[in-house]
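---------- Forwarded message ----------

FYI, see the Xyloglucan endotransglucosylase/hydrolase record below. Original note from H. follows.
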Amino acid sequence: MKLKLVGGDSARMVTAYYMCSDQGTGPERDELDFEFLGNRTGEPYIIQTNVYKSGAGSHEMRHMLWFDPTEDYHTYSILWNNHQILFFVDKVPIRVYKNSGKPNNFFPNEKPMYLFSSIWNADDWATRGGLEKTDWKKGPFVSSYRDFKADGCQWEEPYLACVSTTTKNWWDQYEAWHLTDSQKKDFAWVERNLVVYDYCKDTKRFEKLPVECSLSPWD
């Protein structure tokens, strides 16, 4: 999807573009999130990604962007197969979320997902941890969308026919199971320069880091 985000003073406004297995509120939902956290004028936008399985999230990462996403349209994409989930910005992978290949409680691969988007007011957390207040006089707050494209398998029972590795489609062939050499270079640049928060490095929040944090995005 190509998006152009809310311009000007958008503190505490969140544009969400995400995949979800139900209407977005179910306690057992699977979900893949892009969330764009609004800002005060002149400050950088922050992009947050998250992954849910069976209602369990808390897998947040936050990145700065290397451009102003309010000035023009940019492409935000998700590659999801049974080996990995990649979040892309303009074809640059900003996040890699791997499957261990074993039964686990962190990789969503057992439910179909639908596509959603919304814009909403996150009063308690979205800008500087909730310290910035929404200036409603700056409204209306508008994000624009265009050129949506999707390529995937249609969910049919039993689901294994959809998520099993068949190599029939480009997104389910070996090249899509791992980062390519050029993607590795881009991803390394992102990790060096743009990561603001990574839950896998938050030892204050987690006494013991989640098991998926031990999986290498490079494998």
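H. also flagged this: The first helix runs from residue 160 to 163.
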